[in-house]
Amino acid sequence: MSAVQTTVSQASPPKRSFLYDPNIRGYFYQGLLVFVVSYLFYMAATNAVENLQRAKIASGFGFLENTAGFDISQTLIQFSAAGSNYGEAFVVGLLNTLVVSAIGIFFATFLGFAIGIARLSSNWMVRKVAMVYVELLRNIPLLLQLLFWYIAVLGPLPQPRNSVEMGAGFFLNSRGLFMPRPLYASDAWVIPTALLIGIVGTIVFRRWARAQQESTGRQYPVGLVTLGLVVGLPVVAWLVLALVGANPVTFEMPEKGTFNLRGGMQILPEFVALLVGLTTYTAAFIAEVVRAGILAVSKGQTEASGSLGLKPGQTLRLVVIPQAMRVIVPPLTSQYLNLTKNSSLAVAIGYPDLVQVFMGTVLNQTGQAIEVVVITMGVYLTISLVTSFVMNVYNRRVAIVER
Amino acid sequence: MGEYTDMKKALVTIAFGLTASLFATAASAQATLNSVKQKGFLTCGSNTGLAGFGVPDAQGNWTGLDVEFCRAIAAAIFDDPTKVRFIPLAAKDRFTALQSGEVDVLSRNSTATMSRETQLGLDFPAVNYFDGQGFMVRKKLGVSSAKELNGASICTQQGTTTELNLADYFRANNMKYEVVAFATSDETFKAYDSGRCDAFTTDASGLYAERLRASAPDDHIVLPEIISKEPLAPAVRHGDNQWGDIVKFTHMAMLNAEELGVTKANVEQMKTADNPEIKRLLGTEGKFGEAVGLTNDWAVRIIKHVGNYGESFERNIGEGSRLKIKRGQNALWTKGGLQYGIPVR
Amino acid sequence: MSAAVDMSRFVRSEKVEALPPPNLARGPIAWVRENLFSGPFNTILTLAVLYLLYVIIPPIVDFLFINAVWTGSDRDACRAETAGHPVGACWAFVIDKINYFVYGSYPGAERWRVDGFFILLAVGVAWLLWLRAPRRDLGAVYFFWLFPVLSYILLTGGNMDLGGRFWLGFLAVGLLFVAVMGLAAYLLKASIRSAVIIGAVILAVIGLTLGLVDIDWGLDHVPTSLWGGILVTLLVATVGIVFSLPFGVLLALGRRSRLPIVRMGSVIFIEFVRGVPLITVLIMANTMLPLFLPGDMTVDRLARPLIGVAFFASAYMAEVVRGGLQAMPKGQYEGAMSLGLNYPQMMIFIILPQALRIVIPGIVNTFIGLFKDTSLVAIVGIFDLIKTIEASRIDPEWAAPTISYTGYAFAALFYFIFCWGMSRYSLGVERRLAAGQNR
Description:
The complex is a heterotrimer of chains A (403), B (345) and C (439).
Chain A: H1 2-11, H2 22-55, H3 86-118, H4 124-138, H5 142-154, E1 164-167, E2 170-173, E3 176-179, E4 181-184, H6 190-216, H7 222-244, E5 249-252, E6 255-256, E7 261-262, E8 265-267, H8 269-296, H9 299-307, H10 312-342, H11 354-366, H12 369-401
Antiparallel strand pairs in A: 1-2, 2-3, 3-8, 4-5, 6-7
Chain B: H1 3-23, E1 25-26, H2 32-39, E2 42-47, E3 55-56, E4 62-63, H3 65-78, E5 84-89, H4 94-99, E6 105-111, H5 114-118, E7 122-123, E8 129-131, E9 133-138, E10 152-157, H6 161-172, E11 177-182, H7 185-193, E12 199-203, H8 204-211, E13 220-222, E14 230-237, H9 241-260, H10 267-270, H11 276-282, H12 288-291, H13 298-305, H14 309-316
Parallel strand pairs in B: 2-5, 2-6, 10-11, 10-12
Antiparallel strand pairs in B: 3-4, 6-14, 7-14, 8-14, 9-12, 9-13
Chain C: H1 27-35, H2 40-66, H3 80-83, H4 91-103, H5 111-129, H6 136-156, H7 164-187, H8 192-214, H9 230-255, H10 260-275, H11 278-292, E1 297-298, H12 303-327, H13 330-338, H14 343-358, H15 360-373, H16 385-393, H17 403-437
């Protein structure tokens, strides 16, 4: 735009109406936009105030301190109908959302990478099965898949009296999966400490092994040592304590009660259905991201590493994936965000996530739609903005490494 | 670049507003009766589907006790019980729909409570079904009282008084339970039916209605305990007393008709009866109908098209229906129940 | 670093024996050996997958076809104890309920109107998506104006009955609008005639639209509470696409505008909508929209989620279109400017036609996402396909163990055919576009 006018103005100097000044026009249009938008907001706000007054609905965030009066099936913090308020109900819902998202992201990443790599496998059968998986899951609505898992797969599980006994105190029935609950004795701190030592030891060993490899070319069994340190050390600590006689952890076994199994830990079927649904669905998308990322690494890289004598597994792990990660990570993050947002579909199968508890029960009990919607959307918005921020920082760091 | 986009955006906003208003219907701030007469039909907030109370069939024909109540109002106004549009409302939407004027009357098994009258700006002119919250369990559990439900998992619908009563009841009796809450009554009941919960709780009338939908209705029993008072009543907006009166006396006319023995079949002959109460009810004496903005034969219209309360009850939820609910508290006061028709006088 | 590595270590000292020539380089056996059994690891993998398929496939085939029940009028046909044989999918249930799944409770006698809507939709989609269709510009006018108006009349019955006072008001405001346009043109010393013509055309289009929906076409009014099933699913998706494309283009242009407030506004809108789950947007539209309107206005229950979906889809579409705009070489902008085109001309005639063409695959992919997301309206109580299935599944007339599976299988098939078909189309376009780029 400006290009045209600059030429014109060069040809015939200043004698020009201010109405044609692009800057002034810009101000005018923006002023108009601001006016229209503020007018719409103003109208909406006055209408809302009037409607709320007419409907005698309270406003403000004071309701968060009112007694909740209802119970929630899965609570990570102490929660009771009489002793807790709506604010705590909000925290319960938020934690439930975060838990299912975090675990979902963990499994979806593994499954997604496995399927993404399988789609590029040299094995025809594996390739096709992976493709069918991806096409099938991507093209069916998640809601339908969740209903399928919840109603069609988990629904027909047996009643508690006929629980499937899986051994070692594990039971499966229509109320969920039951497992022994660990009870910690006073000297249980030894085990997490051992785990911590194991992790630190692993990091130190890996650095050392890497330095050794870079200088001498010699390789060490990093994987085995990691396993030994991270898993073995706590187990050894436990065994030693048990032998000494100070058993750090005992288990409370689920037992059959009048209606249901008593004691132990219970994982709700709603949780399982949501987790499985989110994981398998998102994994299909992650698989596509991973595939695109790997394909973005030029074939020459694979050939070069092959000619250096690296095995296919090593090629994948040491050459292809590190380079593909640069392409993979941004869309991968947005898949993680999608998974978190999609966890709100919990409302369809009765898992008490943020939307179900807060936008469902609390909104209905209080009628304070605006506050509840604002808080809920604010939470999701914060999660996604923080993630984008972290992503941008990561991208900048990766971009510097790029040569 | 981009000077023109905002201009366009403004236009689009206006256009969008216009389109939205295509869908919007203006409900009037004027007296509800006048607006109903002007529209030519009554909009009635109904249940999304509760057998016996308000349920559409596959062709969209509505039946049920609450539905017939709306038909009775329409009959009183238009002498035509079909001039009703039913708007199915979920529990969480029902009161906003009434407040916003989307429906003229809400006849959808809603519990009358003080806070709903005072805080939500509603009126519950007359209780058309006295109910209470109960529990349903599978017979083979061998439970015969709600007091034995300690440790049970219970399916309930979220955002209802049911959910709150449930918490209160178990707390008061010092029992533990696991709650499984769903957004709609369909999901709730299906979850119970498929074995997710030991017990299902809602209003007792709802228990009988939902039991019909179980894959094997005879495997379930309703426990005797009623843990709350649930006077189910049609609701109107606060402030329009004329409209409130019409709704109230539609119910009263149906009660009085039953008490006086006026039925759908004999209403025409009854017009010539000597009983002054019947004469006042049927408008052959006095001008009671005109006083609320209707015609004097308003009650005749109701009874002619819908019938009296007893007939409606039997047809939809009583012995003549699949629900087979006993009159109990809903019998006339003369028969030991709570239904007491205010005299037309 | 290189100094530390002893290069001689990697030099092979002895000669490697030549491998024997491959005995079979072609044919099915070679293919199988190459693709399925090339080494112990792959052999194990192949066998494992074969076993997995053996476990999964036969029961599914059994369920869907071999043991399926195709005829019957109630649950007895689909219960193993009454049917006398193991029962898989109960397709008789779907066949019995198919009208409900397609039309919801839309009155039986009026269902031809819904069929009409389906046909209009198919025509519009084919016209726009078939790249070699004639007069695709007319196709756009059809899809974004005529089709929505006709569908509205067909489905609701039209006959808004706006009344004479409305039309008087409309005429007054319209004349005022044209006068303002003329005045602005006069002030800018531009052509008054063309300004007035543009104003009149805008006015005429709005007037014609309102006129069409105002006329009594003799169709019965069908309230939206009766609509349901596939009708609603397609309707939500259609409204999403019809609104989101133009609105998304505007937002994308806004986001690339050099005016700070416009840019900010667009960015805030897009990022806000993309940052929250659709279900919260739907719940917001459902509970808050009525609050924001004047007390005597209500919004139809079906229109609320439609508005929510339209907003939601616009934000995603904006990002797709922005990708297209960014991919346009700068020379295109400069070329357009050097021809003396102003901003709208440049965008409408030069940039957008090319940019939108590049992003057709992206648009289709967004639409696939949107199409799947329409299922969420079931959660706010709209009777879309999933909700009608959920409602039928608990019908005691059809209470049988496999009813739920059958219903879900039907819905999955429906969504899969649509989404998979669209993704194939998008891949095809992508390939064609890529071929065009390789000059």
